[in-house]
Amino acid sequence: MKSQALQTWRVARSARLDNLLAAHAQVSGATPGRKWDTDELNHAILLRLAAEFQGFARDLHDECVDAVVDALGLSNSRLEDIIGIVNLRANRKLDSGNASPGGLGTDYARLGLALWADLRTRYPTRAVKWNQKLELLNTARNGIAHDDETKLQKVRSAGWPMTLPTARSWRSALDGLAGGMDTVCRTHLDTLLGRAPW
Predict the structure, then answer these.
(1) Scanning 6, 112, 145, 192, which has its CA 20 to 30 A from the CA of 36?
(2) Which domain range does residue 181 map to?
(3) Residue (of 55, 6, 3, 7) closest to 189 by Cα position
């Protein structure tokens, strides 16, 4: 079974990304070679990719928090809200910044989960690549959103131009990361709570 967050990532969030890719194909044509300048569409795809992944990570964190609060077996819903909102959701990095590797690590640590260590244990090679590509995506996102050429140059210098192939590579990495996060969160909560949350 998969979390609702992962199901939404794979269906609704994926459909929104696919719509942008379809618009890109309409503008650029189906054959190789650039027919129109697609830089701004590439930027839009990268911004949307970062936004959709941040939404997924926040949804998954919410599901994890709900599972922990539910496991406490409190009969007072206001008390459940206080514990969930004040102690586990308040001042989340996901609510005020990008879904950066460091921010994710901080937010999921509130649940007792060493997110990146667990990902590296379960997916040794892939987790390192996921981390690197997520960091690059967020640097690109900030460069685009804040019109910061220095950040964009940093990403390009690392070998990742703001192109459709880059967006596709990063999306593929985030697909893997989303599935990996779902698995390590489920495993962690199963161990912590004595039952799988989803």
Answers:
(1) 145
(2) 35-193
(3) 3
Say which DSSP state 158 is in: T
Asked if 69 and 83 touch (Cβ cutoff 8 Å), the reply is: yes
Sequence-distant (6+) residues with CB within 8 A of 34 are 28
Domain contains 127: yes
Residue 25 inside a domain? The answer is no
Specify if 103 maps to a domain.
yes
Q: 159 in a domain, yes or no? A: yes
Q: Is the pLDDT of residue 29 over 80?
A: no
Outline where 29-72 has alpha helix (H). Answer: 39-71
Domain count, the chain: 1
Q: What's residue 6's pLDDT?
A: 98
Distance CA 195, CA 5 (A): 18
For the entire predicted model, the pTM comes to 0.93
Q: Give burial (CB, 10 Å; 0-12/13-18/19+) of 78.
A: exposed
Q: 69: how many CB neighbours lie within 10 A of its CB?
A: 21
pLDDT digits (tens, 9 = 90+) for 114-139: 999 999 999 999 999 999 999 999 99
